[in-house]
Amino acid sequence: MTAIAPVRLIRDRATWLIYLQLGAFATYLYGLSTALPLLRIDQGISQAVAGLHGTSMALGGIITGLALPWLTRRIGRRAVTWTGLAGMSVGTLLVAAAPTTLPITLLGYGVASGMASLTLYSGMAALDDHHGPAGPAAISEANAVCVIVGIGVPFVVSAAAQSVFGWRAALLVPAALTALLALLMGRVWIPERKDAAAGTAPEAGSRFGWRFYLAGAVLFCCVAMEFCFNLWAAKLFSDQTGLPAAVAATAVAAFTAGLAVGRLAGGRLALRIPPTALFIGALLVTAAGWAIFWLSEDPVFSYLGLAVSGLGVALHFPMALSRVLAVSGGRRDQASALASIFAGLAVGSGPFLLGALADGFGTQQAFLMVPVLIGLAVGGLLIGSGRRA
């Protein structure tokens, strides 16, 4: 492996603003995810019907992904990120205001997800553009902030659920943080580059090449893989170890802890190791963690396997998104929009397919989908790196 010359990441006020905006994004994502079982109880619905909230989230992301290039051209990235946070807050408030009305909560999940996607992908494009060669490191750190904030959100939901206010009070946090951030840093943004328009205009009407769609396919595999772990790891943990579902739910914490550590370390690694080598290395780490988890019947080794898997998965989304942006020919906003569609399709189809396979063949056999996705991602990286674009 050949090291690259170290690249410096300068965290200015604009960078910290986007980091904090994505921290607010995390309060929505982990808040609504944690609240879903409590919402299901309040509504008295089946798990299948409750799962429609995840479908609504995926559809919301796809719809706003289609609109993102147009919005960016009309109002600019700065306004798009704040519009996304405002819409995200409206969505979570809808769920908090009418937690027993299924159509309203489905709408709330979809609105929150779609609008939050605007902030996520526009912010990532801004970071990549602002930091140039250090863009992958900045994106990795931004995702680390998301995960670190996300670790605390379930505890906030749990504490609210045990208080006189109820769990829905925790869904006020995204709106409160958005308002506070706008008050304190509303005037901060990345200075527009004078050469930005000139640099991207010649390619504005051209189509993306095959390398771009191959990078999008790799992103699809990575997002599908992460959500398969998020939604099904606890079930396999319970099946393998014999522990009750309530205890097995803690398995996700091990995976999330691995994500947090991996994304913090990934920011530094991305400054020193060639992107393709780092990406493939992360996929191999995930494969090793998956093997430990898949084969283990002991809780300790299962926790270890999930933590190692999280370490690898931590770099998948940041590196895959950076790769999509890198082969976009400078059209980062259009590329971010399509990336959100690839991710939305992965969220909607990956866990669903694994669940369908689990119904037919068992959860352990269904989890063989993970190494298949890893193999497809590695193959896509090797093919895409075979020749320079």
Helix-strand pattern: HHHHHHHHHHHHHHH
- Number of individual domains: 2
**How many E strands?**
0
Query: Kindly, what is the distance between the CA atoms of the first and last residues, rounded to a whole number of angstroms?
Result: 21 Å
Helix tally?
A: 15
CATH superfamily of the largest domain: MFS general substrate transporter like domains
Structure overview:
This protein is mostly helical. It has 2 domains: about 190 residues, MFS general substrate transporter like domains (Growth Hormone, Chain: A); about 180 residues, MFS general substrate transporter like domains (Growth Hormone, Chain: A, Up-down Bundle). About 80% of the residues lie in helices and about 0% in strands. The protein is built from 15 helices and no strands. It is globular, with a radius of gyration of 20 Å. About 5% of the residues have low confidence.
Outline of this structure?
Keywords: Membrane, Transmembrane, Transmembrane helix, Transport. This protein has helices at 13-43, 47-50, 52-97, 102-131, 135-161, 173-185, 196-200, 210-241, 245-248, 251-269, 275-295, 299-326, 332-361, 363-366, 369-384.
Give structural attributes.
about 400 residues; mainly alpha; Growth Hormone, Chain: A; 2 domains; 15 helices; transmembrane; membrane; MFS_trans_sf; MFS transporter; transmembrane helix
Topology:
Layout: H1 13-43, H2 47-50, H3 52-97, H4 102-131, H5 135-161, H6 173-185, H7 196-200, H8 210-241, H9 245-248, H10 251-269, H11 275-295, H12 299-326, H13 332-361, H14 363-366, H15 369-384
Helix pairs in contact: 1-3, 1-4, 1-5, 1-6, 3-4, 3-6, 3-13, 4-5, 4-13, 5-10, 5-12, 8-12, 8-13, 8-15, 10-12, 11-12, 11-15, 12-13
